[in-house]
Amino acid sequence: MDFYYMPASAACRSVLMTAEAIGVKLNLKVIDLKAGDHLTPEFLAINPQHTVPTLVDDGFPLWESRSILSYLVDKYGKDDSLYPRDDKKRALVNQRLYFDSGVLYQRFGEYFYPQIFAKAPADPDKLKRFEEALGFLNTFLDGQTYVAGENLTIADLSIFAGVSFFFLTGIDEKSYTNIQRWYSHLKETVPVIESDRQCLEEARKWLENARK
Fold first, then answer.
1. Tell me: the pLDDT tens digits for 138-158?
2. All structural domains of the chain
3. Residue 46 falls in which region: left (phi positive, over 0), alpha (psi -120 to 50) or beta
4. What are the distances in angstroms from CA 87 to CA 83, 91, 147?
5. For a surface tag, which of 6, 32, 136, 164 has the fewest beta carbons within 10 Å of its beta carbon?
6. Is 9 marked active-site?
7. What distances in angstroms separate CA 179 from CA 135, 172, 174, 185, one per listed residue?
8. What is the DSSP letter of 63?
9. What are the pLDDT digits (tens) for 41-86?
10. Residue 212 confidence (pLDDT) above 90
């Protein structure tokens, strides 16, 4: 399987962690967005949206990280623990993934990326919306070890990848005690998160350069 990715990307990191968790080997192909690798005719033929991550499995192209996570576990997982087949359990995982994509990371991007890419001042209204999303996640984790049920799932890996990047930007996590507890527990107990450290360091370097 070819995996087109940017090491610093939270979405790409979630796929790397999931692939490692289920023992899938990926043929890694780094995409340099600054160099325009994502706009070459060859890449556009694979993914006309020219986004990363993009997976190509035996000629089958797939993008959008959360779709890739569910595909990998459904096809290659030794069991369904990361993405349960039980209807209600899977629905909860899906809800958290959609929340991550459409609310949590979406609001982070709306608040933070204009500051990086357009050197715009921080918008307090957008910050308030992002903090509301963090509050939702904090509530989901009230009395819970994982974000979607009693076991680690791809929802944890996807949201962890994003939250770890949020923390790099200086977001004050002290107000979100449940998120802090969940985050620390995953770092201490999930082996693939330990192997994510190198990519997270790449994210830190990318952030430092982007802020210059």
1. 999 999 999 999 999 999 999
2. 2-76 (3.40.30.10), 87-210 (1.20.1050.10)
3. alpha
4. 11, 6, 17
5. 32
6. yes
7. 9, 11, 9, 10
8. E
9. 999 999 999 999 999 999 999 999 999 999 999 999 999 999 999 9
10. no
